[in-house]
Write a structure and sequence with these properties.
It is built from five helices and nine strands. The protein has 170 residues and is α+β, with helices and mostly antiparallel strands. It starts with a helix and ends with a strand. Bound molecules: zinc ion.
Length: 170
């Protein structure tokens, strides 16, 4: 198979996996858990985090007070402050390309909401041997993260928690 066809195949598998990941996340929104998808894309990679909102702010309904709105804003700001949450090895020379963080009320389920955050980095991917997460330090309500890693040469599914906060890639 030519490398171009391989790339196409990889992209198709990726699209499928991401789709499955998204629908699973909606079905299995489980308080205390969060999901993390890490996917390579050329010389970049992106991280997508989805967590039930209760893990970060303690509630999932529309904010009913200034304090609750402030809690949402504070968590959103923390999620955008990627340096405080994600540890990447210096030798990979990663640079942030794009980031986002949002509070999302679930339109289909009353009283469920999530935070979604995504980060895109440009790196020397061959030197990216680990991804450390400091989310547990700031959000003790996140007890476990189900992480899926999809790189052309590495496919991994790992469970992370406060005792095991780092994804080993190589
Ligand atoms: Zn919920």
């Amino acid at each position: 198979m030519s490398s171009q066809r391989l790339l196409l195949l990889f992209t198709l598998v990726l699209a499928l996996l991401l789709k499955i990941g998204v629908s699973n996340a909606q079905e299995s929104h489980e308080h205390g858990h969060a999901t993390l998808n890490v996917v390579a894309d050329g010389d970049q990679f992106f991280i997508k985090l989805e967590s039930p909102a209760v893990n970060l702010v303690g509630f999932e309904h529309e904010p009913e007070s200034d304090d609750q709105q402030a809690a949402i804003d504070k968590s959103t700001a923390r999620l955008l402050d990627y340096r405080s949450l994600i540890n990447l090895p210096e030798k990979a020379h990663c640079q942030i390309v794009d980031k986002s963080a949002n509070w999302i009320l679930d339109p289909e389920h009353d009283n469920h909401a999530e935070f979604h955050a995504s980060y895109r980095f440009k790196c020397n991917l061959t030197n990216l041997d680990s991804i450390g997460l400091k989310l547990f330090d700031y959000f003790p309500g996140i007890e476990e993260i189900d992480a899926q890693i999809l790189f052309p040469d590495i496919q991994l599914a790992v469970e992370l928690d406060a005792q095991n906060k780092s994804i080993q890639l190589r």
